[in-house]
Design a protein that fits this description.
By secondary structure, the chain is α+β, with helices and mostly antiparallel strands. The protein has 10 helices and 11 strands. Helix 3 runs antiparallel to helix 4, helix 4 runs antiparallel to helix 6 and helix 6 runs antiparallel to helix 7. The chain is elongated and about 90 Å long.
């Protein structure tokens, strides 16, 4: 292999470059540790039980507010509903985001909501194995406390319950709560409005076995997770500052290569391609998401990360291959197709998986591929592939990048 330009640098220049990079890294750590707040904030909500006395859910024209001047008619618990002869189909769980006297901001970037049911144990109404909860959910928004609510999304969603009862199932333990897993509920890729309202119904239909065998649901708890506005501003500022620096270094690097009498070697080309992917992921296009309702920014961010991770793994494979001490000439990209091919295939599979979730969420923010067994098994299959097949490729390289990228789509974990 012909010597790459970075290998032909003098010791002095190499030390200068290394010190500059170290200073940049130290500066970034100082900004993150001393200036930037925590990346995200989690806010807990307890749904208010509203009563729909006129069955307006067939018309879809009324929204139920848990508090405020136009608040709904409320009940404390289902025992009160039974005493007043209120049917389960007339109960609406209402959640206003954010809490009173606060408002959301476009600097929050995204809003992820997870759900948990409080289910009491009853001997005559236990949770059946593989039971599904059917929810009639609606999302509305407004930008003023005096304006009317505008519907943003409406959907019929199904979530599989996964609950354990740690105590003995006897009459003495009735009223104790199951330990239920958190469920993915909603994700919005842009927080463009100040106020959001969730209305959740649990319709019951004994003939169609809808919401039968799900236990005695007492309450619905939600956790809303969004990016901190202060963190977003620091993050945007860092990307705006570092992107021109990386771009200048990349142009200088390629200019030095083109000035040489010999053509660029493969390692120099792959380093330049890695620089392009790094510049692409760092371009601060998120500035536009503050002024525009771009709900596809999360999907776009995943695509940029996928390109960078694929290029990084390809770089390490070629870097290791070009430095093997076997006197074999490998200065051609076609030599590495057996190693790079699985990376491209795996990245494409992860892209399809991401499109199946985030693509649908552009229209229906309540959709979650993790709510189905097929979606969960698909992602874990990708993790298994890169964890077990990857290390047995002819050239062994770390496969952490793709595994973490798949786990990033597991919203209950990476947030």
């Amino acid at each position: 292999m012909a010597g790459a330009i970075i290998e032909n640098m003098s010791t002095k220049k190499l030390v200068i470059v290394g010190v500059i990079l170290l200073l940049f890294q130290a500066f970034s750590f100082m900004v993150g540790g001393l200036i930037a707040p925590s990346p995200t904030t989690a806010v807990h909500y307890l749904a208010t039980k509203c009563v729909d006395t006129v069955k307006t859910h067939h018309k879809g024209s009324k929204w139920f507010m848990p508090w405020g001047p136009d608040q709904c008619s409320k009940i404390r618990d289902f025992d009160e509903a039974m005493a007043k002869r209120i049917e389960a189909n007339n109960i609406v769980f209402a959640v206003h985001i954010p809490l009173p006297n606060r408002e959301m901001s476009a600097w929050f970037q995204f809003m992820l909501v997870i759900l948990q049911f409080d289910i009491a144990f009853k001997m005559q109404n236990q949770i059946e194995d593989g039971s599904l909860v059917t929810m009639d959910v609606g999302l509305a928004y407004r930008d003023s406390t005096l304006s009317e609510w505008t519907e943003m999304a409406h959907s019929i969603e199904h979530r599989k319950l996964s609950c354990n009862f740690t105590a003995t199932k006897t009459y003495e333990n009735e009223g104790r709560y199951y330990d239920c897993d958190l469920l993915p509920f909603m994700e919005v890729g842009s927080v463009a409005h100040k106020y959001y309202l969730l209305n959740i119904r649990l319709p019951v239909n004994e003939r169609k076995k809808v919401n039968i065998g799900i236990g005695e649901i007492k309450d619905i708890r939600l956790v809303s997770i969004h990016q901190n506005g202060g963190f977003t501003k620091v993050w945007f500022a860092m990307k705006t500052f570092l992107t021109p620096s990386v771009l200048i270094i990349m142009i200088w690097y390629w200019r030095r290569i083109t000035q040489m009498t010999r053509p660029p070697v493969l390692l120099e080309k792959i380093i330049f391609a890695l620089g392009i992917s790094m510049t692409f992921i760092n371009i601060p296009v998120e500035w536009f998401s503050v002024g525009f309702n771009w709900t596809w920014m999360l999907l776009f961010g995943d695509i940029r990360q996928g390109i960078f991770y694929a290029m990084l793994l390809s770089f390490w494979i070629i870097f290791c291959g070009e430095h093997l001490m076997d006197q074999t000439e490998r200065n051609h990209f076609s030599v590495y197709w057996k190693q790079v091919g699985p990376i491209v295939f795996g990245s494409f599979c992860l892209f399809i998986f991401d499109m199946c979730e985030r693509g649908v969420q552009l229209k229906n923010p309540f959709y979650s591929i993790w709510a189905s067994d097929v979606g969960t098994d698909t992602c874990f299959l990708n993790i298994f592939f890169f964890s077990h097949v990857g290390p047995h490729l002819p050239l062994q390289v770390p496969d952490v990048g793709h595994t973490s990228m798949c786990c990033n789509d597991c919203h209950l974990l990476h947030h």
